Amino acid sequence: GPAAPPGPPREQPVLEPVLPEEPNGTDSAKAPKVNCEERNTTGIERFTLHILNVSQDLMEFLNPNSSDCTLVLFYTPWCRFSASLAPHFNSLPRAFPTLRFLALDASQHSSLSTRFGTVAVPNILLFQGAKPMARFNHTDRTLETLKDFVFNQTGIEAKSDVAVTKEDWEGPLPSVLTKGIDWLLLFSVLFLATFVLYATLRTESIRWLIPGQEHEHQE
């Protein structure tokens, strides 16, 4: 589709496909597309996701020289689709303890949103090292569909005894909407309105420079 202008991510019921993802099925399950290096879980007692704050850079958490895989969620705290996804994504680290899971507020990391084409939230990317390999592209965002996505992409099976719990609804990713002013969205609307006004005035000034236009207007 046409490229979207730079701006804050918006919420949407359907995730926009940018990276290729083959449909779920037997063929894709037999041939995983990403060969992930599973991390050593010895000594790790609690498997949870890490939420980046505004001063942390995603690239600091992704090792370009390794083959380990990380599932990264782009969300915003005021997006209702992000909130409904939160408890399911919170439970994923327990289902796949050998993988890493990160989440970041897309409104606080706008440069990353532009870089990876995350013009809408929630948006989930599978990274191998520092390279994005696949994008989750399902409207049904549940623990089961997320597990199927990871399995079809990596061939790693999820732990069968993992389910969404009460603690997953509480955090670490918030499942309750945060009310507030979206300053980035407001700035984008003002910028677009200013651009449209400028383009309109510019077109009007050019029309007066065309020979015969002024005479025709006077008549």
Automatic annotation (TrEMBL):
Gene Ontology BP terms: cilium assembly
Any one GO CC term of the record: cilium
UniProt-listed SUPFAM superfamilies: Thioredoxin-like
Record field: transmembrane: 183-201
Keyword terms, alphabetized: Membrane, Transmembrane, Transmembrane helix
Record InterPro entries: Thioredoxin-like_sf, Thioredoxin_domain, TXNDC15
Ranges where the record places region Disordered: 1-32
Positions of the Thioredoxin domain: 25-155
Superkingdom classification of source: Eukaryota
Pfam family, one: Thioredoxin
Protein's name according to its UniProt entry: TXD15 protein
Species the sequence originates in: Oxyruncus cristatus
Composition-biased stretches (Low complexity): 12-23
Sequence ranges of Pro residues compositional bias: 1-11
